[in-house]
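INPUT
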Amino acid sequence: MRYTRILMITILLSSCFSPDSLQVDYLAESEVIKFSNTIEEALPQTVIFEKVENFIKSSGDKKKKVLVVGWDGVRLDAMLTAKTKNLDSIATDAYVLYTGGDKDNLQYTSSGPGWATILTGEWADVNGIVNNGIERKNSGVPSFLKAVKSIDSNLKIGSAVNWAPINLNILGDELELLEFHSEGVSDDKTADKAVEFIRSGVDVLFVQLDNPDAFGHGGGFTPFCPSYVGSISVADRRLGRMLDAVYASAAKNDEDWLVLVTTDHGGYGKNHGGHSYAERTVWLVSNKKL
Ligand SMILES: [Zn+2]
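OUTPUT
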């Protein structure tokens, strides 16, 4: 018994040190999440901003609402390996994206620049968040939360994040515009807050869950690392709680929700920040055709 356990632990630990490079075959083999493009055709991470803005501007009888959920540091092949029944359930459309800036304008594949790019639709040279330091983004560059409020000042906006610098530093001065915000509490409590905000009538909500990144740094950002892959499944269960709140609100109030799920960067070995495919390749899953 004891021998078996030691053997199991050895297998689990050693499996985290399997190949670090992105397992590109996983994309073509994915049976549930079908991508509309290939890794070679990856779109810049900046597109998320316009997807949110365009949806809010689009016409329709029902009230438009948006939930953007970010799972920190979830590499594409690991996401496709993890059991993610809630993500699968909304995967009407999916795109391979890239982070880390453009060829002649690279930025670190780190959380600060990644989330700032997702929120503002601009790379670091424009939004000002070039690393994970404590600076604020350039005030003339709005996040999609501020942008939708300029379209309709009645919209209620919110941000629930485990990694507090997203709210305190990246959104920074914008925080006073938000009807709902929460930062610096565990992923579980962040999901609770997101559910509370949805039930309270938020119209456009950004959520960041941090744990997958921590497990990636701990064991390796690869689909061969069970603790990392398992943490993605836990993030998926938290997404499920938010989706339940979205469906309840939509049914009760006749709302039309766009739900987007994404990540800020991938990883190579136990780190990220550089410009390998494994770090640069990210993804976007949507409940609507984009
Ligand atoms: Zn990150």
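end of record. Residues 116 and 264 are 9 Å apart (CA to CA).
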